[in-house]
Amino acid sequence: GAVVSQHPSRVICKSGTSVKIECRSLDFQATTMFWYRQFPKKSLMLMATSNEGSKATYEQGVEKDKFLINHASLTLSTLTVTSAHPEDSSFYICSAPGDGEKLFFGSGTQLSVL
Amino acid sequence: AQTVTQSQPEMSVQEAETVTLSCTYDTSESDYYLFWYKQPPSRQMILVIRQEAYKQQNATENRFSVNFQKAAKSFSLKISDSQLGDAAMYFCAYRIYGSGNTGKLIFGQGTTLQVKP
Prior knowledge:
The complex is a heterodimer.
Chain A: E1 4-7, E2 10-13, E3 19-25, E4 32-38, E5 44-51, E6 57-58, E7 67-73, E8 76-81, E9 90-97, E10 103-105, E11 109-113
Parallel strand pairs in A: 2-11
Antiparallel strand pairs in A: 1-3, 3-8, 4-5, 4-9, 5-6, 7-8, 9-10, 9-11
Chain B: E1 3-5, E2 10-14, E3 19-21, E4 24-26, E5 32-39, E6 46-52, E7 60-61, E8 64-69, E9 74-79, E10 88-96, E11 106-107, E12 111-116
């Protein structure tokens, strides 16, 4: 079946540094990818929708300059957390729509900012 | 705006017993999809079951079934013969129909299910 590969699975960084998270659709093309953020034992909150070849659409309240999204190809979308701070520590998950109204999720990235 | 509400933060069930997780939603749309996702400790999101709003028949997947009440905007999940592997966080989700496969999912708050041996 379709697979979305997300890397890294876990990253620890110092405050002020930038972190890039990648999501790749391995055996299908994804013109759209969704980026979610999840706090411990909480729901998934949609941050933004990335679209191949165009600007991402951000949800209300999400800082565009803080969370940079790039959808460079039909199989790759990246989320860069710029100048990360401890409050950015969270679990980030991507998902991509496939055939038959299905959504495929990456395995998530746990970001810890010290 | 569409919203999804899960009023049970935690539920517990004895192994082999049946449990029902509740979900209500609010939308002005007539056509949409509803989903239940399972998130085990690994945090990988797993699709449990899907319901199209235009279908009156309740969806069923093996031990998992739903009670879809469109007028009441209710979408509960029943897990029969509960197994230890069913222990996870369960999310109810909504997606508008007709958005192709690009429609975003709106999730409920989640219900943590504990299965007791």
